[in-house]
């Protein structure tokens, strides 16, 4: 049978409240009874001490105290004289058996006032027991000792009714506390269950395809953190879904453009409209190469996603990496009137990297810099040792990237200037590949840019400790 979280929380809170409250009630009842018995004993002891002291003062000894106690046991408890007062049921307030709650021991250690069967008359009592009793003094001298029995005296009907009223009051307070606890448990359970229900509905909506879900964050506790985490997850899933749709559209566009060119030329040649000249065949071949490059880029990213990208690290110096990456672009730089500067101090530690992958990383960054750097500009490639890591950087003096787009440049198929999409501006996968290849080799990549001044990409690889 399905039980809701509201039901489970309510039952749990109620059980805790009931068990705790009734435990407190039981302890209070036992404690109250014990304290009341002690109060009765103390009161009786005080009254009896007074009466026995008066008897000793009148007789100068304990002789005859047993008979006195049997015949006149109520006289000192009833200062007004006469028989003991009666309660509403016709019973005496101090029943006869209450006189036996103690025994009287004289200074020689003999029982002179018996408490049958524990202390019979004439019994010799040890000094240890006498030391545990209550001494009776007259004119500064000890004249005897009262020894209490190990059992409590029987309560009078009036005292019993007092205990019953006290217990009833405790029970009523307990029931009221339980009722309040139940109400609070329902309110608290509903308060805790409400955000969980909202999260459930939002999750079900996401499962149905509505990815843009947001729940209200009502608190800063664990439930609030859960709601905030769900909202962040929903935002990321929605963003990823939009990127997937955009990526699908971009792939279709990037495939359609060269395929259209190829199909147009081949169809024209087939129909005899155009002749298959070397220039036209070269153009078709260039479009095929463009398709091949796109397919290879997509294949590389799929290998990264699957964790199957082959990496073949070897020891290589940062200076060598920069020189080999820059060499193929020297002629293009001269044609575009762009200067390429290299800065790498001597003594940089070697790195354990895949040289081919690093050539691909730096080539993508240089190509990206060429696309956005005008004639007369400069591309600077450098390496330096900082905080136990080698930092590569590729800087240009191009148009820069707006601040709101800096966190998007590594997304697949993202283009800062989408107008270049149809003008040879690349597939939009270059920087995504850079990030994937760097992270696959244990590094990290970041970008800094100022609009109108240029952009700097930084790649950081930690230096392995020397053994």
TrEMBL record:
Native source species: Ornatilinea apprima
Subcellular location: Membrane
One GO term describing the cellular component: membrane
Lineage: Bacteria, Bacillati, Chloroflexota, Anaerolineae, Anaerolineales
Ranges that cross the membrane: 6-28, 169-188
Primary location: membrane
Domain of life where this protein originates: Bacteria
Record domain Histidine kinase: where: 250-465
UniProt keyword Cell membrane, yes or no: no
Record-annotated HAMP domain positions: 190-242
CDD domains registered for this protein in UniProt: HAMP (cd06225), HATPase (cd00075), HisKA (cd00082)
InterPro entries in the record: HAMP_dom, HATPase_C_sf, HATPase_dom, His_kinase_dom, HisK_dim/P_dom, HisK_dim/P_sf, Sensor_HK_Regulatory, Sig_transdc_His_kin-like_C
UniProt protein name: histidine kinase
